[in-house]
From TrEMBL, chain A:
Designated name of the protein: Guanine nucleotide exchange factor MSS4-like isoform X1
InterPro entries: Mss4, Mss4-like_sf, Mss4/transl-control_tumour
Gene: LOC106470608
Lineage: Eukaryota, Metazoa, Ecdysozoa, Arthropoda, Chelicerata
A UniProt-annotated Pfam family: Mss4
SUPFAM superfamilies: Mss4-like
Alphabetical UniProt keywords: Guanine-nucleotide releasing factor, Protein transport, Transport
Organism, scientific name: Limulus polyphemus (Atlantic horseshoe crab)
Tagged with keyword Secreted: no
The keyword Transport appears for this protein: yes
Gene3D superfamilies reported for this sequence: Metal Binding Protein, Guanine Nucleotide Exchange Factor, Chain A (2.170.150.10)
TrEMBL record, chain B:
Taxonomic lineage: Eukaryota, Metazoa, Ecdysozoa, Arthropoda, Chelicerata
Keywords in alphabetical order: GTP-binding, Nucleotide-binding, Protein transport, Transport
Cell division keyword on record: no
Name the record gives this protein: Ras-related protein Rab-18-B-like
Highest taxon of the lineage: Eukaryota
Keyword Membrane included in the entry's annotation: no
Pfam families in UniProt: Ras (PF00071)
NCBIfam families in the cross-refs: small_GTP (TIGR00231)
Length: 164, 205
């Protein structure tokens, strides 16, 4: 991608590119600030990966508001620390029929992704089930509100199971 | 924004015999809801919690044994890197008090930090059939240089205090923890400096 070419013959798509680039630069700055303060990697900041970034920017966004528990006042995550990610994971329902022996559930397809578990304000991790741990509210222990991948160390919050 | 004001991240362990109320204590330390019928199908392994002590925000990773203590399968990795440990016994169960020696021994064997801050918690004081007196608890804690508190997960008694005391003591112990970037330690009115790291003596709240 080349700025100069775009400036010479700006088409609609290219203007869109410029806007996205500007947005990305802004996002990068925000990320770098976070990086300094948290010492935490910010994936989407590599300027050499523009096509990927473009794709990500078009499909992902950061959580704008504080993520809270649906049931109690516990703060789970502060704004701007998770990105939407398309990934499929089966989660048992938070409310189960007491008589049921096998938990009913649903396959959730989009999550808020958090790279570092210490980005959370308050969160609980269940015992290991296969390759994952389920996430719960740290205070009232309702869950699963998401899951944690033990291999990648990433955590995923199901947006429909928390309060934004 | 977000984490700029976090002073440090601390690993805290909760250990003790099965049934002394470790899990409900962990829940209690961190909230106001107590569910007497709590029967998690999958136990909670550990929690990340924010705690503010003297204006310093610390992020805690609180580890529960999640029942594995029953089989004596706590691995060295469970203990590794911990800055604080909460030893729990049940004041209505003398065996749980007597087994403290074992837990303390295991803690000293596996903990990678020699000056780990320990707190003894006599739990379930809301029950009437107490067999371990407060004095016994105090004495034991003093002997092993631990903080001491009696608590009940059903009432607010002492539970929040216990965590705050422990974290305060860790923060006052030089070399036990590391600051997250650029955060500055805010000392409250002339907090005492710990010499030699070991938590000096006991403390009754």
């Amino acid at each position: 991608m080349n700025f100069k070419t775009m400036h010479l013959s700006p088409s609609f798509i290219e203007i869109e590119y410029i806007i996205i680039l500007l947005l990305l630069t802004m996002e990068k700055e925000t990320c770098q600030k976070q990086k300094v303060s948290e010492g935490k990697a910010c994936e989407e900041t590599d300027i050499g990966r523009i096509p990927d970034m473009l794709k990500e920017t078009l499909t992902s966004s950061k959580n704008e508001s504080t993520v809270m528990c649906q049931k109690c006042p516990s703060i789970i995550l502060k704004p701007g620390l998770a990105s939407t990610t398309n990934i499929e994971q089966f989660l048992p329902f938070m409310y189960q029929e007491t008589a049921s022996t096998t938990p009913d559930g649903e396959t959730v397809k989009q999550f808020w992704c958090v790279d570092d578990i210490y980005s959370f304000e308050n969160v609980g991790f269940s015992s290991t089930v296969g390759q994952i741990k389920y996430l719960t509210c740290a205070d009232c222990e309702i869950g699963p509100i998401g899951w944690h991948d033990l291999l990648t160390k990433k955590s995923y919050i199901a947006p429909n199971r928390v309060k934004l | 924004m977000a984490d700029t004001d976090i002073l440090t991240t601390l690993k805290i362990l909760i250990i003790g015999e099965s049934g002394v109320g470790k899990s409900s204590l962990m829940l209690r330390f961190t909230d106001d809801v107590f569910d007497p019928g709590l029967s998690a199908t999958i136990g909670v392994d550990f929690k990340v919690k924010v705690l503010t002590v003297d204006g310093n925000r610390a992020k805690l990773a609180i580890w529960d044994t999640a029942g594995s203590e029953r089989f004596r399968t706590l691995t060295p990795s469970y203990y590794r890197g911990a800055q604080g440990a909460i030893l729990v016994y049940d004041v209505t169960n003398r065996t749980s008090f007597q087994k403290l020696d074992l837990w303390l021994n295991e803690l000293e064997t596996y903990s990678t930090k020699s000056n780990i801050v320990k707190m003894l918690v006599g739990n379930k004081i809301d029950k009437e059939a107490r067999v371990v007196t407060r004095e016994e608890g105090v004495k034991y804690a003093r002997k092993h240089s631990m903080l001491f508190i009696e608590a009940s997960a059903k009432t607010r008694d002492g539970v929040q205090c216990a965590f705050e005391e422990l974290v305060e003591k860790i923060i006052q112990t030089p070399g036990l923890w590391e600051t997250d970037q650029r955060s500055e330690l805010r000392l409250s009115d002339g907090a005492p400096t710990q010499q030699g790291g070991q938590c000096g003596g006991y403390c009754v709240i």
